[in-house]
Amino acid sequence: MATRIVMSKLSPTMEEGRVLRWLKQEGDPVESGDVVLEVETDKATMEVEAMGSGVLKKILVDENATVPTGTVLAVIAGPDEDISELLAQTRAPAAAVPAAGPDGSSATATPAPVETPQAAATAATVITAPAPQQDDGRIKASPLARRMASERGIALNMIQGSGPGGRIIKRDIETAGAFGAPAAMTVDVGSDMPYERVELSQIRKAIARNLAQSLGPIPHFFLTVEIDVGALLDARAQLNRSLEDTGVKIGVNDILMKAAAQALQEHPEVNVSFAGDHIRRFGRVDVGIAVAVPDGLITPVLRDVAAKGLQQISIESRELIARAREKKLAPEEYQGATFTISNLGMYGIDEFTAVINPPAATILAVGATKEKPVVVDGAIEIRSRMRVTLSCDHRAVDGAMGAEFLATLKGMMENPLRLVL
Amino acid sequence: MAVITYREALNQALREEMRRDPDIFLMGEEVGAYQGAYKVSRDLLEEFGEWRVRDMPIAELGFTGLGVGAAMVGLRPIVEYMTWSFALLAIDGIVNAAAKMRYMSGGQFKMPVTFRGPSGAANQLAATHSQALDSWYAHIPGLKVVAPATARDAKGLLKSAIRDDDPVVFLEGELLYGTKDDVPEQDDFLLPLGVSEIKRPGTDVTIVVHSRPLHAALSAAEVLESEHGISAEVIDPRTLRPMDIDTILESVRKTNRCVIVEEGWPVCGIGAQIVDDIQREAFDHLDAPIARVTGADAPHAYAHDLEQMAFPQTEYIVKAVRHTCYLE
Q1: ipTM of this complex prediction, to 2 decimal places
Q2: Rounded to an integer, what is the distance from CA B113 to the centroid of its chain?
């Protein structure tokens, strides 16, 4: 007799699960109790056992696919058993919603309710709209959300929709309004930016869902480290002496940009953007530089910093900053940084936390370089130290990821020769 | 006020109107000696005599024709069908004669006839006796269509239907006859045709529902409030033609979401028409596609469990509302 393997509800909050790995293939003999596949729930990875014996006749859901609980994943049957009728039932489930009768008798093991208009045309009694397609390039917004956004002057492409298929709905506009600025943005970096689409694991989805509700649209956390910059300042002085007749003067910020870009290349998991249903891991490091202007702040973006030398970084950033102060930047010159540096050291600020500039998932806040007593090999020495604080979007970047990046950055800053590697 | 059944409320309305106006008479199968298949006409034969409470043969088209003729010459007939499923045999009299007479005579004839009887399914009456054909009649220009869900509405609306000079299709419910409600006792208690009523105020979603599923919708609103924190506004249009869409639109402009419930089938249903009105008149106020909960799109089942599943039940309405509120 044929038995079905179903995506069971393995935790009270589980609504869908991902088929991680099939341990048996179609045609393999299966004994009741054999582990047939692994499933990833919102909490853990679980093994699913066969409830009947025979051969694995048909696998209905591929590895890595995410399906709602109740979905039939595979059929076990005798080697010569005809399961075509069972498969037909599985593909066109009775559309009625499972229901308890008035006497409490319930329709057990009824397939999950189907809510598509096609199903409604056959037997459904609940007709709701199907979720629109994810990521088809269009902005999806409810008519009300469109009207509210237009009244409030909020650009829809600056908002991430929380409805089905990323539809922007009333609450998304209200959240954007409540934080004064467009929230969780998914603005694209330059359209030529290469990126790798990293599918969200169930755990990553759960983290994103929970943390997004905790602190504003972007759940921030902060990591601070103190960097010894004595060697770096010496190297910079040496470099600048050698560049005297070129007019170029390397700044600490230029070295920071170079070091950060190289460190990000070593930690691509930090050079990312959270995009709702996936994470964009960028193939290039574009660094934004926070520049104070009389009526606010703007962040000109230096593209592909890791590929540039210190001299080029210095020349280009100086030119960008100058034009930023004159407000002569084109939009594409201040949008789409994958990482941002904000330096308030010149104001004597020891350390601070910066607010993430979407679509990036991180921003580095740089404090003043100060001489202070430090214990080195058991003795007190006076050293030049600088404190930097990394703000991270917890939906995409975890504490350990940020800490490892900072450790690499610190290592490069303290051994500036590594920057020429 | 007195708490009485829907059946008693209809009986009061018939009695009060027949006492008020000698031109009003009741005709139909078993309305006299048997006192009505569902006892709506209890004691009327005794009080008004056989000239005004007329038992009819099993010939729906024939006695519908008698009713239309009587209305043409100035009487005010009330034609009772044992069920609206049987009135399928009389639909030519209703649609081609009653609904057209005023128009085709250039206004020379009024048509003050009321067609009434139970609509929708009851308990295991099987497919041919279990259908809510509300939208068939609501489709026809020249008819008014009324579908009360409570005893109070049944009394006030039936009295208005009887007094109306146009043909009124009055849809009752076998499963509603025993339901009870506070009903005013005074003779002049009239509820106007074509006016919706907000049965329960709310702020998060509008549920539009008429006839028997109103009760499922009200219990769904309770569940939504206590278990899901959703405040549902429940509106009963009560008259399906002409429908008071303004009350519904005003509510949707406030809640931005709407679920429409009806016992009838989904295709070309009453809800389909309401969706059309809302999308045109309140498009910019919608935050979600409008959902519908309807009877199953199939001949009505005889088996008890299947029959229950084919009705718009409380849990289906809760599910549709949660979906519309982006909670599932």
Answers
A1: 0.78
A2: 16
